[in-house]
Design goal:
single chain, alpha+beta, Serine Threonine Protein Phosphatase 5, Tetratricopeptide repeat, Ubiquitin-like (UB roll), 2 domains, five-stranded mixed beta sheet, 34% helix
C-alpha cells in the first residue's frame, strides 16, 4: 500500500506541474497527501504549481491545506519560485522576493553537498535555451532507455519522454527519466548521450537536440 501511495503522490506533483486541475482534484479527493514532497529535491505540489504559474492549481492546493512554509532542499518556499503577481498575492508575499541561496541554508547535509549528480542549477546557464529546439515546439522530446552497470540493457527499445523548455535542467532530466523508466534516482550512476557522451549539468541538457537517444545507467 505504501508503494501505491508514493506513486499517487508523484502523480499529484506531476499533474500540478502540468496544470491539470481535474486530475489533481481527483487525487486530492482520494486522500493523496497535498504536502507530499519529492525525496530528492523536496518539491511539493505547491512548489510545482507556483513554479509553472498555474493559478488554478495553486488555489486548489491552498483550499486543500497546502503548507506555505514547506521548503525545497535549497530552502525555497513556493512563493520564491513564481514570478506571477497573482500567485504571489495568493501566497501573501512581496513581488520582489528573491530565491534563497544554498549558502543561506542553516545545515547542508552531505547528500546535498556532495551528491552523485549535480542537482544544483548553474545560475549563468539559466535562460540559455537552444533556439533551434524552441522553434520546433514547447517540449524537448528525448528517446531514453536504461542499462545497468554490468552493461545489460533493460529494454532494447527506447521510450520517448518530454522536457518542458521552461525547465531544461539536469535535475528535471533525472526526475523525468527515472519516473518514466521506473528507476530509483539514487541508483543512477550516469546519463549517457549516445554513443559516448556523459550528461553532467544543466548546460549539457540545454544542448540536447530533438529525439536525442540517452541511456540511464544504474546499479
Amino acid at each position: 500500500m505504501e508503494g501505491s501511495s508514493k506513486v499517487a503522490e508523484e502523480k499529484l506533483r506531476e499533474f500540478c506541474c502540468d496544470g491539470d486541475v481535474e486530475k489533481a482534484r481527483f487525487l486530492l479527493q482520494q486522500g493523496v497527501d497535498v504536502n507530499s514532497s519529492n525525496k530528492i529535491n523536496g518539491w511539493t505540489p505547491l512548489h510545482w504549481a507556483s513554479k509553472r504559474n498555474h493559478t488554478g492549481i495553486v488555489k486548489l492546493l491552498l483550499a486543500n491545506g497546502a503548507k506555505l512554509d514547506s521548503t525545497t532542499i535549497r530552502g525555497e518556499t513556493a512563493a520564491q519560485l513564481t514570478k506571477d503577481p497573482s500567485i504571489q498575492q495568493l501566497l501573501s508575499v512581496e513581488n520582489t522576493i528573491e530565491p534563497v541561496e544554498d549558502s543561506k541554508l542553516p545545515i547542508v547535509p552531505n547528500y546535498i553537498k556532495f551528491p552523485k549528480f549535480i542537482y544544483g542549477r548553474d545560475a549563468k546557464d539559466w535562460g540559455q535555451v537552444d533556439t533551434v529546439n524552441v522553434a520546433k515546439g514547447e517540449e524537448l522530446v528525448l528517446k531514453v532507455r536504461k542499462r545497468n552497470n554490468n552493461g545489460i540493457i533493460g529494454e532494447k527499445d527506447f521510450i520517448e519522454v518530454e522536457l518542458d523548455f521552461g525547465d531544461l535542467s539536469f535535475e528535471n532530466l533525472v526526475d523525468v527519466c527515472c519516473r518514466e523508466l521506473s528507476v530509483d534516482p539514487h541508483s543512477v550512476t550516469k546519463i549517457r548521450k549516445l554513443p559516448d557522451t556523459i550528461i553532467r549539468k544543466d548546460k549539457d541538457v540545454k544542448r540536447l537536440k530533438q529525439y536525442q537517444e540517452l541511456e540511464i545507467v544504474h546499479n
